[in-house]
Design brief:
By secondary structure, the protein is an alpha+beta fold. The protein is built from four helices and eight strands; from the N terminus they run αβαβαββββαββ.
């Protein structure tokens, strides 16, 4: 009897295993779609009220261009689906300011522009999200960007001072983008 059970039990287990398993399909990898959201800081510009007061009223306090070709790199440009740029502005100065951010392509051609009118303190922090791709602006604006130009213009005077100690203007730019990994 023990010999019979010893021979039948492995056979039953083998038949059970075959009846409960499916043929493996290793082509499923081709059906997988990986689209994570990548987030990163892009730009931070800060100036204090003392520096603003050194510049004549109605003048550019900051005007800088930054080489920026991260969006045109193939690892991004070939895989980006959609995304957003997130602007945050904090103004604790006594100045009314205008901030202009320009995305420049080849030959310094302006591809896209964002303009912000900032009231003097007390001002709530400003946050603006601009979508690209999908229902937003064209992704081509970002993909073809080679430089970013930031201009901060003092729309007020150059003598007033804020009641806030160490008053500053802080301009932050971050991005969140969905990219196709596979």
């Amino acid at each position: 009897m023990k010999k019979l059970i010893g021979r039948i039990l492995p056979l039953v287990c083998y038949v059970f295993f075959l009846s409960c398993s499916e043929e493996q399909n290793f082509d499923q990898f081709d059906d997988i779609s990986l689209t994570p959201t990548l987030a990163s800081s892009i730009l931070y510009v800060e100036t204090n009220e003392e520096k603003i007061n050194l510049i004549p009223a109605m003048s550019d306090v900051v005007r800088d261009e930054f080489e920026f070709d991260a969006f045109s790199e193939g690892v991004f440009s070939d895989r980006v689906i959609e995304g957003a740029l997130i602007y945050e502005i904090e103004n604790t100065t006594s100045k009314q300011l205008e901030i202009t951010l320009e995305f420049l392509g080849a030959g310094d051609i302006v591809l896209d522009t964002e303009i912000f009118q900032i009231d003097p303190e007390p001002t709530a922090d400003l946050q603006r999200t601009v979508a690209y791709g999908g229902g937003g602006k064209s992704l081509e604006y970002l993909i073809n960007t080679e430089k970013v130009r930031v201009t901060i213009n003092n729309q007020g005077d150059n003598t007033s001072t804020s009641s806030i100690v160490n008053a500053i203007l802080a301009f932050k730019l971050a991005g969140e983008f969905r990219v196709r990994v596979k």
